């Protein structure tokens, strides 16, 4: 399920409308974004390890991003921005749906978190570069994927870290993430378009073309006993790091 909507030049207008309409339920763990609430701890575990490995910091620190800036693109109502802020980062979140940004600002204020949320096209906001750039479950909703990835790369500071996650385009993902998930109401109908899913090989090509080197992707899998968890199986969904070449 997509975390959000992104730049007007790359995102389809109907995608922005789809996710904007869900804004009121972003923070309801039993609402239309329930799957994201289950996915978030899995992604955060990967991100925390990636942060520790990249900057060789104190693995026991509760604020490993202290003194660092973070940008989350397609931030929705801030489900990732808020944990990044709690990890110590100075966080900026960008989304193309004004409804999402309003919901994000309200929730951050209620949580006592100072997060800079921006509505609009990433490339026109003049945000500069960031130590950490994230975009979770967004690229599959983007029309011009190379332009989107290049835009992310342009906002990555030298020595910085990028983390992306997205569904894989496999028969398994079509059956489970589109067919079963929507039929069972796990995600709202119309959320996923399987033909827009990106394989790990395709994403690596996009990242390399943008001047980045790519880490080894990790799968996000599901089982009846473990629920959603990190694994070596990339068939459904995967998460990966990148940095400047």
TrEMBL record:
The keyword Methyltransferase applies. Pfam families: Methyltransf_23. It catalyses: a 3-(all-trans-polyprenyl)benzene-1,2-diol + S-adenosyl-L-methionine = a 2-methoxy-6-(all-trans-polyprenyl)phenol + S-adenosyl-L-homocysteine + H(+); a 3-demethylubiquinol + S-adenosyl-L-methionine = a ubiquinol + S-adenosyl-L-homocysteine + H(+). S-adenosyl-L-methionine binds at residues 43, 74, 95, 136. One of its GO terms (biological process) is methylation. InterPro entries: Fumarate_lyase_CS, SAM-dependent_MTases_sf, UbiG_MeTrfase. Belongs to the methyltransferase superfamily. UbiG/COQ3 family. O-methyltransferase that catalyzes the 2 O-methylation steps in the ubiquinone biosynthetic pathway. This is Ubiquinone biosynthesis O-methyltransferase. The lineage of its organism: Bacteria, Pseudomonadati, Pseudomonadota, Alphaproteobacteria, Sphingomonadales.
């Amino acid at each position: 399920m997509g975390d959000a909507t992104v730049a007007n030049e790359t995102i389809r207008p109907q995608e922005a409308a789809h996710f904007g309409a869900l804004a009121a339920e972003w923070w309801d763990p039993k609402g239309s974004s329930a799957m994201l609430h289950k996915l978030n701890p899995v992604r955060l575990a990967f991100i925390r390890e990636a942060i520790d490995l990249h900057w060789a910091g104190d693995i026991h620190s509760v604020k490993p991003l202290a003194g660092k800036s973070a940008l989350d693109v397609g931030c929705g109502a801030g489900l990732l921005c808020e944990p990044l802020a709690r990890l110590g980062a100075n966080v900026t979140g960008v989304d193309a749906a004004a409804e999402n940004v309003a919901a994000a600002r309200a929730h951050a204020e209620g949580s006592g978190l100072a997060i800079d949320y921006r509505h609009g096209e990433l490339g026109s906001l003049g945000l500069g570069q960031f130590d950490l750039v994230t975009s979770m479950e967004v690229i599959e909703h983007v029309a011009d994927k190379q332009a989107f990835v290049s835009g992310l790369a342009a906002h990555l500071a030298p020595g910085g870290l990028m983390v992306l996650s997205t569904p894989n385009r496999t028969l398994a993902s079509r059956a489970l993430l589109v067919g079963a998930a929507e039929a069972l109401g796990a995600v709202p109908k119309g959320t996923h378009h399987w033909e827009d899913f990106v394989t790990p090989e395709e994403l690596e090509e996009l990242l390399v073309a943008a001047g980045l080197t790519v880490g080894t992707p990790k799968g996000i899998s599901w089982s009846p006993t473990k629920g959603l968890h990190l694994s070596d199986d990339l068939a459904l969904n995967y998460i990966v790091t990148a940095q400047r070449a």
